[in-house]
Amino acid sequence: MKSFKLLTTGFLALSLAAASASAATLDTVKERGKLLCGSNGKTAGFSAPNAKGKMSGFDVDFCRAISAAIFNDPDKVEYIPLTSKQRLTALQSGEIDVLSRTTTWTMSRDSGMGLSFAATTIYDGQGFMVHKDLGVTSALELAGAAVCTRTGTTTELNMADFFNKNKMEYKPVVFEDRSEEKSAFFSGRCDVMTADRIAMAGIRANAPGNPDDYIILPEVISKEPLALAVRSNDSEWFSLVRWVAYALINAEEMGVTSDNLAKMLKSEDPAIQRLLGVNGNLGEKVGLKKDWAANAIGAVGNYSEIFERHVGPNSPLKIERGINALWNQGGILYAAPIR
Amino acid sequence: MKNVTHPSGAGAIPGSSFWNQPVYRSLIIQAITFALIAGTGYYLISNLVMNLNARNIPIGLDFLAQRAGFDIGDAAITYTAQDSYGRAFVVGIINTLKVSLISILLATVIGIVIGIARLSPNWLVKNLTRGYVEYMRNVPLLLQLFFWYALLTHALPSARQAFNPVPGVFLSNRGLFLPTLESDSGFYFLLFGLLAGLTAALIWRFRANTLQKGTGRQLPVFWPFIALLATGGLVGWLLSPQGITVDMPALKGFNFKGGIEITTEFFCLMIGLVTYTSAFIAENVRSGILAVNKGQQEAASSLGLSPVRSQRLVILPQALRVIIPPTTSQYMNVIKNSSLGVAIGYSDLVSVGGTTLNQTGQAVECISLIMLVYLCTSLATSLFMNWYNASVALTER
What we know:
The complex is a heterodimer. Chain A is of the alpha/beta class. Chain A has helices at residues 2-21, 25-32, 58-71, 87-92, 107-110, 154-165, 178-186, 197-205, 235-254, 261-264, 270-276, 292-300, 303-310, and strands at residues 35-39, 48-49, 55-56, 77-81, 98-99, 115-124, 126-131, 146-150, 171-175, 192-196, 214-216, 224-231. Chain A has 13 helices and twelve strands. The longest helix of chain A has 20 residues, at 2-21. Chain A is globular, with a radius of gyration of 22 Å. Chain A starts with a helix and ends in a 29-residue tail after the last helix. Chain B is mostly helical. Among the domains of chain B are: 1-56, no CATH class; 85-139 and 264-391, MetI-like fold. Chain B is 65% helix and 6% strand. Chain B has helices at residues 2-5, 22-54, 85-118, 123-138, 141-155, 186-215, 222-239, 264-291, 294-302, 307-337, 349-360, 363-392, and strands at residues 170-172, 175-178, 180-182, 245-247, 250-252, 255-257, 260-263. A three-stranded antiparallel sheet of chain B has the order 1-2-7. In chain B, strands 3-4 form a two-stranded antiparallel ribbon. The model of chain B is unreliable at 1-9 (pLDDT under 50). At the A-B interface, helix 1, helix 4, helix 6, strand 9 and helix 7 of A face helix 2, helix 5 and helix 11 of B.
């Protein structure tokens, strides 16, 4: 009977292990002492190692903000590099806590996959980049072209829709990894590369030779709201991720920056007092301390600072705010109020 | 005392306790092992189903009938984005099988040549082939694929400046474009002509064989065989009422239209698989030849057989018995290694399955399907090679 007992204890231990895996994400993160952030690691401007070998970029800063909100330290993050094919499965299976990797929020991903999109971080759209010497000025002249893209992206589907809708034939060449995709495009294997326009601006900025040899065509063929994603079985964690992102946008709206944070902590404005936890304790509602947002802003700055640092006009990507400006400045960036 | 004199028997030993009876003990151990394996399997599967349910992820293969919505660049059967995920999978399977089969054939031919050349008395031939084998099998295949892909895409000209050595043949970094034969009914005439030619050729070979067995006189077989086959095909073509036209590829817009296209991705994967696998097969061939007794070679020479004929008629048939079993596993490696094509943009099963996985979120089902296909093709290869191995085995009389 000894072996039978052993068997039952074994199964119990296994079930317990499985049970703890589905415990509250925030508790798991705190216990582990770091956040597991699904990232790309190869897209300049969004997430790539900087000159010091540290991960840096627009997507990375949102993970740093979440880490700062939880631990008051933006560096308690482990970045898990994922291909576009792996990313959703990695999140489903609990390999990462949050996915911050230029992932488009779509209905089919938001329903029936066990995932939820917490907040849009940037509004992008799909476009085409071509070799300048082809003399192409519009995406409607691309009939018959060889098009490079990556597997497992909405890009792949939008491309099919666009060419089919306009009755143009084309030859897709689909890669697993961005490095090979870029190499194939720059070598001329493909006439066209298609991706989200902001990410593509980063690829163009780092083109071998002269970036001016390549042009990004004016057509925007899709809506790509790139958003933070979490598992849908933990609504508290979902709220935490959403409100950290919203806090950064609200901070820009209120003029709170990482530089003037100390001064703003003494502000008389009740909205700023609520945001920074001077008055009330909204952080408690998402399981955090009351200075959560102040810590996040202090670590990475507000939305505008993040944007300017990694993708804005003074960065190598040279992207204008455009539709990513605040709602009261002509854009569509609108975060629900913190109150 | 019968039980004591035959302790190895499975019968019960009187007088010893229940636990010390070999028959019960062995049964219990087997039962526990089985229960452990079945229990773990059941636990894992039920855990998976529970977790998928908890996350609202549907289970099942229904998604295969849905519209795929993505295009595949290199499809052997007609396929558009309007077709189902199931059909996309089939396209992927065909692409995997296509590159595997062609690579296996070429790797075998090159492997045999290199394996024999490694045993050549000529210093240069011996060492060149040795260098080939050592380099090819000691560098990871994935790196070799990246190398070939970077080389071909960067070294070959763009589509507009494509090499055009013969009319209708274009080579660029898009791939190789060749003319094809086009006809509606002409193909049947051609096929019929070829069949007639083949029958005539087989009859000729049979006659030559019987003549040699009966009288010892040898008739040429190889060239008449080819000539009869070609004549049959030619007559069939000439007899076809509509004639057969040649479809020439031509540059239209960005790409070549018409003819047949061998894409750079397919070609690179094939080159990589062929060079890598042929190195292993060459070593199998070399070991097989070395395993044949030296006396066989001497006997063949003393009978007056030329070196080529003694290799073909005496050495290789005996060496095959040693060569085939390890080569079977190389063939299976080709099929499995073809999945690396996803890295250089070849639309194989893994690439298509991966896209499907990402669009539908059905990770478990997609990966299981991919694994099942590889398992089945490998088992089929193994079965075929075992049958072939049995057919060349030494029949003892």
